[in-house]
Design brief:
Order of helices and strands: HHHEHEHEHEHEHEE
Mean pLDDT: 93
Shape: globular
Radius of gyration: 17 Å
CATH class: Alpha Beta
CATH topology: Rossmann fold
CATH architecture: 3-Layer(aba) Sandwich
Number of domains: 1
Distance between the termini: 39 Å
Low-confidence stretches: none
Oligomer: single chain
Number of helices: 8
Amino acid sequence: MMRERTQIGDYIRELCLPEDSVLDTFEQDVAAAGMPAIQVPAELGKLLGMLVRLTGARRVLEIGTLGGYSAAWMARALPSDGRVVTLEKSTKHAAFARTFLERAGVGDKVEIMLGAALETLPSLLERGDPQFDMVFIDADKAAYPAYLDWSLRLVRSGGVIVGDNVLRGGKVLEPGDDADLNGLAEFNLHATSSPLLDALIIPNRGGEDGILVAVVK
């Protein structure tokens, strides 16, 4: 079964993902920098870019930068005056991301805000900027419910909220006392039951995980 899943993944990537000298070497680059290679798979990166285009987004919020891989996909899909604001608590990760985003040709489209997301999110309201068209959540899982609350305050009506890693190989069905799994289970429940959202969970990574996509009503 694992071989079949790998073959299907290879098939999708071969058909749908063009070669890219910067994005294709990302995993090796982060490993060489001593960082975890836990970025989104390339097919999800492309999907994020497609969602940016489908929504006509000009302002995107990302919670969890890591090395800047998903931010690069989204920033490349933005119009020339578009902007990604991405939140990262690690100084090391933020420094790597700045360099990578420059190499990807989108350094001028991405603002990295350094600090824990729950401490920097309030400042986005205080700045008085326009609401975001889309938010991508991919940070510490225990805080996903709080990230969802902030997203509902920061994303416009008709905008899109995307959460990554929401299934965790099915472990989210029985979270026990695991803080991350409980955070994901609560996030999934609140997003799918909220009268403010129309949400769907879509399996990915060969069914081992999934993303939640929600439209703000």
